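User: Please fill in residues for this 638-position structure.
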């Protein structure tokens, strides 16, 4: 039994959003290390660029989660504290329960999931008590996270802060609040609002996370306010930027690497039938440093910062070299194929062994089809997607950038991806347009430097910009065609005559050639309109236009001259054209599709010498011949 369990391949879905990118980078590093140590596990990560938490397309970004059918996975991890959209989180919760698979939720309670994370209440209370008891803080500005009711990280941290204040005799009116919703800029806005109010500075700013605290520190420094001399500041998370800030931010180190390791161990225990608890807290550690008046960096931390700084510089040097090539290529691209060529050449910029670009089939079709283009704005993934770009792998294909079409039903069994130990999916979208998704097979190194989204956006903007340009060109071509064609028949009109017929005539004149001009007029048109109505008059005109198209070559000039009159301009050697017209007209009458006989008078004029004359002169002569024929036909009917 043990041998069977170790040889079986387990498929794990991992759901996250990278608005606080370092926490995601640490989580994915931990996941990769776990996979390296457990060869029988495959993980597919579904991520989105959710940094602009409350933008108009925030919920749209979470559609990448729709790709994961939990029924096709053995277990799942939801990095729930990253997903601030309550509707997206509730949908994931319902799908987890419906699938009935073991699941772990990080940082927030979810039905059907073991909740793993930090004891936010205890950690936040520790920070608050330190500011009150050690540094004598009595008045506060509290920067709130995005709360989801009476549960979750934001609520627990605020509740702990308030309980600590109450226990130590801090009155409620000594605390001001600002809804920072986790974002750095909101922390800066809170400070600017405080300063513009003219009220006295509080003793301390307590932030529910580091991002808001760092934004506050920046705004305070810009205003010339000293930290910690004039005000104390604390955060929560201990992200890398917290150790780089000046002064060094006091915060809580969460052990996020250990949280993910614990989550994976919990899933494997559950899959092997072992009992698991409902809640698991991983050890945290307060970091009391310069921003609250405590001593700064330790020697070991300084060495770590030096190592990380050197590593980031090397990564940036490589990134900027590749970015120059990528940007130049994308901006010079004239069509989607050019763009995909650039992405395949520059894929090492992600720091991933392989890159795959899958495009919605209707998006690809929409590059050439108006009907498919109308579907593009629906904002969802299609049932079938086209593998259009590959990095780090050569694929045999009859058509470049159309390597294969796949169904989205079961991503765990996709060709090329089903053997990858790790794959991470990112949505490709522009405003309301879902283009497809990108897959990388290693956590991208550029994520650590907040540059990953920039690269993907460059690609998305280039694709959509090119598509819009191609669409504009098609529309312009259609408008141009409409301006020179007759809407009833599709043949050229007078504008088409001026633009194309005279151009053709000029070429014949230059070469000293001969022209054949046929002038056609429907007999008894007034009788048809009076007797059968103008609808049948239009039908007669359309019928003759179809006869003309069937009787002429594609290269012949064909136009509706006006009313029921038509002109054909061809080469003089086309001697059979009149007989073909008459034969096809006879067939129309034989079929009896019209309630009246279709009779047409035809003037057939050959210009032996086109020098010293105009095309209008030749048309007049063909018209005269047509009129003579019409008179003869009338005389013959008397």
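Assistant: Residues filled in for all 638 positions:
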């Amino acid at each position: 039994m043990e041998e069977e369990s170790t040889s079986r391949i387990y498929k794990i879905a991992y759901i996250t959003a990278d608005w606080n990118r370092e926490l995601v980078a640490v989580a994915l590093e931990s996941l990769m290390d776990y996979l390296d140590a457990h060869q029988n596990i495959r993980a597919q990560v579904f991520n989105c660029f959710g940094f602009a938490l409350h933008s108009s397309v925030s919920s749209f970004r979470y559609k990448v989660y729709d790709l994961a059918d939990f029924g096709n996975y053995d277990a799942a991890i939801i990095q729930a504290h990253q997903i601030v959209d309550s509707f997206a989180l509730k949908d994931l919760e319902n799908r987890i329960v419906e699938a009935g698979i073991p699941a772990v939720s990080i940082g927030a309670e979810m039905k059907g999931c073991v909740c793993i994370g930090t004891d936010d209440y205890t950690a936040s209370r520790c920070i608050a008590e330190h500011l009150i008891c050690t540094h004598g803080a009595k008045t506060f500005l509290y920067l709130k996270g995005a709360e989801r009711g009476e549960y979750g990280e934001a609520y627990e941290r605020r509740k702990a802060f308030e309980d600590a204040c109450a226990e130590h005799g801090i009155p409620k009116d000594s605390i001001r609040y600002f809804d920072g919703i986790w974002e750095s800029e909101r922390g800066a806005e809170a400070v600017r609002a405080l300063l513009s109010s003219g009220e006295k500075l509080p003793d301390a700013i307590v932030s529910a996370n580091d991002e808001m605290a760092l934004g506050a520190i920046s705004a305070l420094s810009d205003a010339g306010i000293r930290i910690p001399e004039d005000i104390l500041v604390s955060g929560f998370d201990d992200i890398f930027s917290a150790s780089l800030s000046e002064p060094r931010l006091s915060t809580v180190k969460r052990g996020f690497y250990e949280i993910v390791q614990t989550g994976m161990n919990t899933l494997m225990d559950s899959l092997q039938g072992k009992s698991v608890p409902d809640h698991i807290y991983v050890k945290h550690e307060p970091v009391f440093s310069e921003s609250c008046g405590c001593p700064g960096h330790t020697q070991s931390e300084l060495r770590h910062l030096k190592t990380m700084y050197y590593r980031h510089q090397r990564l940036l040097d490589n990134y900027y070299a590749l970015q120059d090539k990528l940007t130049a290529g994308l901006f010079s691209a004239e069509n989607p194929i050019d763009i995909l060529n650039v992405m395949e050449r520059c894929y090492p910029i992600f720091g991933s062994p392989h890159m795959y670009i899958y495009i919605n089939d209707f998006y690809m079709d929409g590059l050439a089809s108006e009907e498919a283009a109308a579907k593009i704005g629906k904002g969802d993934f299609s049932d079938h997607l086209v593998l259009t770009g590959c990095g780090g792998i050569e694929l045999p294909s009859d058509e470049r950038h159309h390597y294969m079409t796949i169904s989205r039903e079961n991503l765990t069994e996709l060709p090329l991806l089903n053997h990858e130990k790790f794959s991470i999916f990112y949505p490709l979208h522009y405003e309301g347009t879902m283009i497809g998704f990108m897959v990388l097979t290693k956590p991208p190194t550029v994520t650590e430097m907040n540059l990953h989204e920039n690269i993907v956006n460059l690609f998305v903007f280039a694709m959509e910009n090119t598509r819009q340009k191609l669409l504009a060109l098609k529309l312009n071509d259609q408008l141009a065609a409409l301006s020179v064609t007759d809407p009833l028949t599709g043949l050229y009109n007078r504008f088409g005559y001026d633009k194309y017929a005279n151009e053709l005539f000029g070429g014949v004149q230059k070469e000293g050639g001969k022209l054949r001009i046929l002038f056609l007029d429907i007999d008894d048109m007034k009788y048809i309109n009076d007797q059968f109505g103008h609808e049948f008059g239009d039908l007669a005109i359309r019928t003759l236009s179809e006869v003309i198209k069937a009787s002429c070559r594609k290269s012949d000039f064909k136009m509706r001259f006006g009313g029921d009159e038509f002109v054909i301009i061809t080469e003089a050697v086309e001697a059979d054209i009149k007989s073909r017209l008459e034969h096809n007209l006879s067939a129309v009458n034989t079929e009896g599709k019209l309630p009246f006989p279709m009779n047409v008078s035809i003037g057939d004029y050959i210009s032996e010498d086109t020098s010293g004359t105009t095309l209008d002169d030749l048309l007049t002569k063909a018209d005269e011949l047509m009129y003579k024929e019409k008179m003869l036909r009338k005389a013959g009917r008397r």
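For context: The longest strand covers residues 422-430.
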